[in-house]
Amino acid sequence: AEHESRKAALQKDLGHLQEGQSAPSPLLNALMARGQRAAVLGRVVEVKPAAEKWRPLLEKMLGIHRRAILPEDFKAAWDQAQQTPSPTEPLIHPEEVLQSSTKVEKGSLREFLETKHDVAGRLLDHLLGDIIAVNKASQLDKHARAISLDSGLKTPPRRLKLVPEKELTLGEEGLRRLRDLREGELRDTEA
Questions:
Q1: Are 62 and 126 spatial neighbours (Cβ–Cβ below 8 Å)?
Q2: Rg from Cα positions in the chain
Q3: What is the pTM (predicted TM-score) of this model?
Q4: Which of 97, 107, 139, 178 lies 20 to 30 A from 25 at CA?
Q5: What does the pLDDT look like over 18-55, one tens digit per residue?
Q6: Cα(first)–Cα(last) distance of the chain, in Å?
């Protein structure tokens, strides 16, 4: 019975992945069903090839924002969100993001990501633009906010040892990798 339920869960996950979603997205689906245009941050952002070694930490730092919905019509999307609560799909107000002015610092995590979506770009500026990437935790104190390749994080007044994200879903490459992983797991359950 446990084997069959795992197999069914993997097949369901693969269905979402084939639709371009890394997880169930009730709010996004409700918006799309009503003809509203919206993007998901994790689908319109790609990790630059040179920054691939940072992918697990980038995804950890973005966290729930990977599933953030970027609607064209915020008011209509907010009205829909009241009817379709989905705590795992943050709704981003595009005008508020575009009005914010965040300086992207040289060497920040923001420089490791690319997007053609204006709102997504500005949101990334806000979330990651002042977090400087360094190689070792011993270098964190050279910057106001920083993250190290060995998983140290400095966001005053706290310091954390992060656990890098294992399920990598960012961009088309992340979605492809997760789909490959799930297909391999499904094959293993059928063996």
A1: no
A2: 18
A3: 0.85
A4: 97
A5: 666 666 789 998 999 999 999 999 999 999 999 999 99
A6: 16
